[in-house]
Amino acid sequence: MNTPNNLGEWSAGLALNRVACVRGGRRLFSGLNVALGVGQLLRVAGANGAGKTSLLRLMCGLLQPTEGDVRWRGQPLAAQRETWGRELVYLGHAAALKDDLSPMDNLQTACTLGGQDVTRAHAMQALGEAGLCGFERVPVRHLSQGQRKRCGLARLALARHAPLWVLDEPFNALDTTATAWLAGLVRTQLHRGGSVVLTSHQGMALDDMAHQELAL
Length: 216
Fold this sequence. Notes:
By secondary structure, this protein is of the alpha/beta class. The chain contains six helices and nine strands. It starts with 13 loop residues before the first strand and ends with a strand.
C-alpha cells in the first residue's frame, strides 16, 4: 500500500506511525504506517490470526500499540477521548446485541452509547432499510444470523455524523440484497467525505470503489 512519507499530509484523517502490536507474546505486526484521508476507504486483508481485528481495535483506541502511535486529525487518540467516541463508529465481527432486546431497542441503545440521539421514527426507517420490516420489536434471540448482522449494521444508516467507520467483516452472513445495501452505505459515506476501514473477504462488493489495500 502506498502512503505519504509525511503522515502529517493527511492530518485531517487517521494516521498510524510505525505501529507494532504484540498479543499473547506473539508479534502480529510492526513498523506499520497507515494514512487514511477524508473520503477514503482502506480494506485490511490477511489470514485468520494475522492481526486484522487487533489492528482495527488499535485504530479505535481500544488497544494500545506496543510501539508507535495512532492519531486522528493530527492528535493522539488519548488526547481527545471525549470527542473521539462521537466521531467514530466501530462495529466488531460479532454484532454487539442484547438477545432480550428488540432490534429497535438495540439500535437506539447503541446510538445513545455512541453519543447520538435517535428518534424511534429514524430507527424504524433504518431497520426497514436493513430489511427488518416486521421484526423491529421481535427479541433478537429469535432472529437468524443474517438478520442479527443487519440489525447491527443498521446503525450505519444513522451514522452520517461520524467521519470514520471501522468495520470488522461487515459483509459476513449477508445475502446479495443486503450486500448491495451495505456497499451503498459505504459508498455514500465516502461521497460525503467520510472515511471507512474494513476487513472483508468479499472484494467483489468493493470493486467499483477506489480503495487502498493493506495486507497483514
